[in-house]
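Minutes, project check-in
Item: structure for the 238-residue chain
Input as provided by the requester:
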Amino acid sequence: MALYDYAVLDLRRLRVLSTVVSAGSMAAAAERLSYTPSAVSQHLAALEREAGVRLLERVGRGVRPTAAAGRLLAEQGDAVIDRLAAAEAALADLRTGRAGLLRMRFFATAGASFVPPALAIFRGRHPDAELDLAMQEPPDSVHAVRAGEADIAIAVEPVAGSPERDNGLCWTQLLDDEYFAILPANHPLVDRGDVALADLAQEQWVDTEPQPSPCSEILTSSFAAAAGFSPQVICGHR
């Protein structure tokens, strides 16, 4: 197997060469770079050793790139420096959240209420960011975040002790949903105002939540924790 020697060109020296070519002299390049003329000369000598060819030739009091290697390396060096600057700028945008892709999943009622104004604020702060939005009910949306298929999900928070909470994700509470008990007009609890869960223990329930679902689990666990009973559902969504 044959081995080949090759030199890796130093980016700092390419920048020095580019500056010398655009400035027209080592002294002018040194001033632009805040280097000493001696340092510029040393960088160029080292770059010529790396390249294995002569890169500059003297013209009066200044210098110019040699017709082949010097001009080629200066032009290619400019392209490399420009691409590196673009990469650094893009990386800075990603670090600060100004650009990049945000994949969000949310359930229907969230998509109709607080997601639109939140996205309007996000767009105002990060106009160059790309959005991937999709409606997805929990727990599927939570699974998508855990699998790396989404960055953020707006979901109903699982009840304490649920496996869905023990998944290495960061949960942030956005708001509390308020629940209302809908009762017949002549029911004794109608004029009570706030109703304790224990007061509803003997009532028959109509439940529109699919079983199982995050919301139904929250209701069932709340009844069990606060009053020690499970709702008696006589009509429900199954």
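Outcome recorded: Residues 95 and 128 are 13 Å apart (CA to CA).
No further action items on this chain.
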